[in-house]
Specification:
It is built from 25 helices and no strands. The chain has helices at residues 2-17, 21-38, 42-54, 60-76, 81-92, 97-120, 126-142, 149-165, 177-182, 208-227, 233-249, 254-266, 274-293, 301-310, 315-321, 327-334, 340-343, 372-377, 380-391, 398-405, 421-442, 447-454, 456-461, 470-481, 488-491.
């Protein structure tokens, strides 16, 4: 039987070489059926040849078909990912956007089952599979900065999968292996061995604590993107949907998500057109109704109901699920989730000793455990993204910055409008050019005045003599930057 199936695979490969794009796709699907369903042992022998034959095909539909084949092959044998990772990496850089999106969807589909196989089963080559998954994750996260909206949205859905994997799932009565693999979470990861003598019994190829911090950093990234002034309508809709999914699958995060989405509803983005804003609000309305129907949201209905009313949700729907009068009963039924991720940092979340539930913090509040050590464990593109997003919170003028560093007891500082990374680069180039011109034309004494004129009214104001002495302001800035959301120093 195996020999006959192998002959069929060879015949289909030869037929595909002489066929058009549609014929190649059909042949590849038949090969996929034969090698993944009928006789999986053939994958070992034919995989390399199939990758070599179809990866460089000039037709995008054929390359997409190859990605589908890789996805099914890796589901059949997770170790094959180590042999396919080079092809997936190359296809992530494909010139065709549809191919790139299909690879991201493949990564989104494969990541949790393969992590489950590594963590929960004795799959062969688990360390090599984990290394391939880390490579795939890093390559996909780079695409969060893609100029294409479809690619960015697909990458955001992949981030959602990472958050679900790196956070704790609620306790469940169904402890079957299949169920745990379908919803793999941080609770399923084994702790690092206590000593080197027990290293073989542990899992030296991943660090559970580092993954927990990475999950929280990615969760924070969603909050940053939700408030960024340049996030597109498609990305905002994807983030809102992903946050809703995270809240419903990770009830420990329900309060944070409700608070953040409520804040988002009350302070909608101003850079969107009316039609784009209406589209985002429709998505927000749909997702918040789903949250309302989840039993874990009952204790947060005081915050959720006003937002639903503003979104014009039907009164009948609101009244049907309104649990504001029976919060105690709802908590008794649902307060079984693990909120240790909140209490890991004493200042991250306040825990009520009587209610034993997390405070409904906003995503906009910066978790203090995201520091230089945390950022150093993240992929470089993601760490850079966090730093660049945080730079938008910097005040527009030097005086405002000093006011934030040394606030008076009765001063009210308006929220900063932000300075984007691109603007900071432009300002830096203008400052260097103006300084060089001033030094060459009139000598060193006139340098400060010339630079101030060239940089415009905003930056010229930063050089007024009324500012703090340079040594004092520098030391003050350095010490105070450690309290800012994310700093360039932390990224370093």
């Amino acid at each position: 039987m195996a020999s006959e199936t192998a002959q069929q695979v060879i015949a289909l490969r030869n037929e595909a070489q002489l066929s058009n794009a549609r014929g190649k796709v059909d042949a590849l699907r038949q090969i996929q059926e034969l090698t993944t369903k009928k006789d999986p042992t053939l994958l070992e022998g034919f995989l390399e040849e199939l990758l070599e034959q179809f990866q460089v095909d000039p037709d995008a539909s054929v390359r997409k078909g190859l990605v589908e084949f890789i996805e099914e092959a890796c589901k059949t044998d997770p170790l094959l990912l180590t042999r396919c990772i080079a092809s997936l990496t190359a296809l992530l850089r494909d010139e065709n956007i549809n191919v790139v999106k299909r690879v991201i969807q493949c990564a989104t589909t494969l990541y949790r089952p393969l992590v489950g196989a590594v963590v929960l089963t004795n799959v062969r080559g688990e360390a090599e599979i984990w290394a391939a998954l880390e490579t795939l994750k890093s390559n996909v996260l780079v695409l969060l900065q893609s100029p294409n909206e479809g690619v960015r949205s697909a990458a955001l859905k992949f981030v959602e999968i990472l958050i679900l994997t790196y956070t704790r799932a609620p306790r469940s009565t169904d402890q079957s292996l299949l169920r745990r693999m379908e919803d793999i979470s941080l609770s399923d990861f084994r702790d690092a061995p206590a000593s080197t003598s027990t290293a073989n019994a542990g899992t030296p190829f991943y660090n559970k604590e580092a993954l927990r911090k990475e999950g929280q950093a990615l969760f924070f990234l969603f909050g940053q993107l939700l408030t960024a002034h340049d996030t597109t309508q498609a990305s905002l809709s994807t983030i809102v949907s992903s946050l809703s999914t995270v809240a419903r699958m990770r009830p420990a995060l329900m309060g944070r998500v409700i608070s953040s989405l409520s804040d988002f509803e009350s302070s909608p983005p101003r850079h969107l057109s009316p039609s784009q804003l209406e589209s985002v609000r429709r998505t927000l309305k749909q997702q918040m109704v789903l949250i309302l129907k989840h039993e874990a949201s009952a204790e947060f209905h005081d915050r959720l109901m006003p937002a639903l009313e503003k979104l014009e949700v039907d009164a009948s729907t609101r009244n049907m699920y309104d649990k504001r009068g029976v919060v105690g009963q709802a908590r008794a039924e649902t307060d079984d989730f693990d909120d240790s991720m909140f209490t890991a940092s004493s200042s991250a979340v306040e825990v009520d000793s009587t209610a034993k539930r997390p405070r409904a913090e906003s995503l906009f509040e910066y978790p203090p455990h995201i520091n230089a050590e945390t950022l150093s464990r993240l992929p470089v593109p993601l760490a850079v993204e966090l730093v660049m997003l945080s730079m938008q919170r910097l005040p527009p003028t030097y005086e405002d910055f000093l006011a934030l560093l040394t606030p008076s007891s009765n001063a009210v500082v308006a929220p900063p409008t932000g300075l984007t990374a691109r603007a900071s680069k432009v300002v830096g180039r203008e400052q260097q050019a103006a300084a060089a011109a001033a030094a060459g034309a009139s000598g060193r004494p006139a340098r400060r005045e010339s630079v101030g004129k060239e940089r415009g009214p905003v930056l010229a104001a930063a050089n007024k003599p009324a500012a703090l002495p340079q040594a004092t302001s520098a030391s003050t800035s350095a010490s105070s930057l450690s309290t800012m959301p994310v700093t360039a120093a932390a990224a370093a």
